[in-house]
Amino acid sequence: MQEPLLMAADAALRTLFVPSRAARPCPTVHAPSPNTTPLSAEDKSLAGGLMRVNHVGEVCAQALYTSQALGARVFSGNETLARHMEAAGQQETDHLAWTEARLQALGSRPSLLNPLWYAGAFGIGLIAGRLGPAVSLGFVVETERQVEAHLASHMDR
Q1: What does the pLDDT look like over 80-109, one tens digit per residue?
Q2: pTM greater than 0.85
Q3: At what angle do helices 114-130 and 41-75 cross, to 10 degrees?
């Protein structure tokens, strides 16, 4: 029981206090063309705020996958599901790194409330994990639907 808890604590500390490193290159990063118009200060501020919200979402994704892996391992003994949740969290680490990089490029910063967001998402994920694999996986599916809708609203802005 101690090892899964230590792994979860390590994941939280890394997410909140260590710069993330992507395993894959960001698919949208490209060299600016000579025709690229720089963002106005107002647009840069708006983009920074939107990216801060996206970064919070990636922090929460780390918490959700970590807690659901812990729940699968501890509550149901489902090592296969736990490994899948951990793999999903590792893929989300790329998104976390990409949003951190974009925040820096915009001269913005992550949310100061990230530890609270992480704790809340971790608790929700642990509850979903406690309710069993079907609820846990259903929660992942619905979370992804909500994220897609959220990102679409950002794109509209």
Answers
A1: 999 999 999 999 999 999 999 999 999 999
A2: yes
A3: 30
What is the distance between the alpha carbons of residues 68 and 85, in angstroms, rounded to a whole number?
7
Q: Are 14 and 65 in contact (CB under 8 A)?
A: no
| Distance between start and end Cα atoms, the chain | 46
Distance (Å, rounded) from C-alpha 97 to C-alpha 87? Answer: 16
CA angle, corner 32, sides to 31 and 33, nearest 5? 115
3-state helix, strand, coil in the chain (%, to 5): 75, 0, 25
Q: How far is CA 61 from CA 12, 17, 85, 115, in A?
A: 11, 16, 11, 13
